[in-house]
Design the sequence.
């Protein structure tokens, strides 16, 4: 999960599961095209169609029974009136929240569309620099747009045997709460490395102010309290995602303490 820490500005204290309740996908088909990235979890060889969209839950990501080939971003659904439809032609398809954002600015909506293609660039995303962990170089926005966004990264290792159930539920509610209150564009959460146990979660926000405001919401506070004794290792990193006018691509830069420009 990790969402609670992936937008926190206090001492880290969240957990590690990708929410599986309140999600929807572009379709309900069980067959998908082959994906380029294979995350080798070193798990038991349980028979499963490797192209089938896996079910993410508190158990499936901490105790996987088969190799996961698909690690989609969880995108906050934009307001209904915008009429945004998922791109069903993509090989790697995102998941979307059932809860809708109250609003989203035009350039952030362009980023939202680009993030449909977001995925890890390496199965070692928890160990490499954030700039190298994902396919940032493949994300493109309209050339005439300019903006910055606030990114939070949570690298973690769970304490063996720690109870994940209550924390999973609290983290999922904190995520839904953040979407409902606005500002959260995307949440992504990986699978613990089978050798090191390290994992990575990340959020992209419309602004730092949105992320800070989420810290005071009741479900976030409860999740932080539950998570305080769940991690053996945890670190927080903060970045700016930047799009310059005259260019189509984006860049990742260390957070300099100033609010994002938009």
Sequence:
């Amino acid at each position: 999960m990790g969402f609670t820490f992936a937008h926190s500005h206090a001492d880290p204290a969240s957990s590690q599961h990708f929410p599986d309740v309140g999600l929807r996908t572009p379709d309900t088909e069980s067959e998908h095209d082959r994906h380029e990235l294979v995350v080798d979890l070193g798990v038991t060889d349980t028979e499963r169609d490797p192209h089938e969209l896996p079910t993410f839950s508190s158990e499936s990501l901490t105790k996987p029974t088969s190799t996961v080939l698909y690690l989609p971003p969880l995108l906050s659904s934009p307001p209904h009136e915008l009429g945004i439809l998922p791109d069903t032609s993509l090989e790697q398809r995102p998941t979307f929240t059932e809860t809708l954002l109250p609003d989203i600015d035009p350039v952030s909506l362009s980023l939202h569309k680009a993030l449909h293609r977001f995925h890890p660039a390496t199965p070692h995303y928890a160990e490499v620099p954030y700039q190298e962990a994902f396919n940032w170089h493949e994300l493109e926005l309209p050339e005439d747009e300019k903006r910055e966004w606030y990114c939070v990264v949570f690298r973690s290792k769970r304490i063996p045997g720690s109870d994940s159930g209550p924390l999973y539920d609290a983290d999922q509610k904190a995520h839904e709460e953040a979407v409902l209150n606005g500002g959260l564009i995307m949440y992504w959460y990986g699978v613990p490395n089978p050798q090191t146990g390290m994992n990575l979660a990340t959020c992209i926000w419309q602004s730092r102010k949105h992320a800070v405001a989420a810290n005071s919401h009741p479900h976030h506070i409860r999740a932080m309290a539950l998570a305080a004794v769940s991690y053996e290792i945890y670190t927080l990193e903060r970045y700016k995602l930047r799009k310059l006018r005259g260019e189509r691509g984006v860049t990742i830069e260390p957070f300099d303490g100033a609010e994002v420009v938009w």
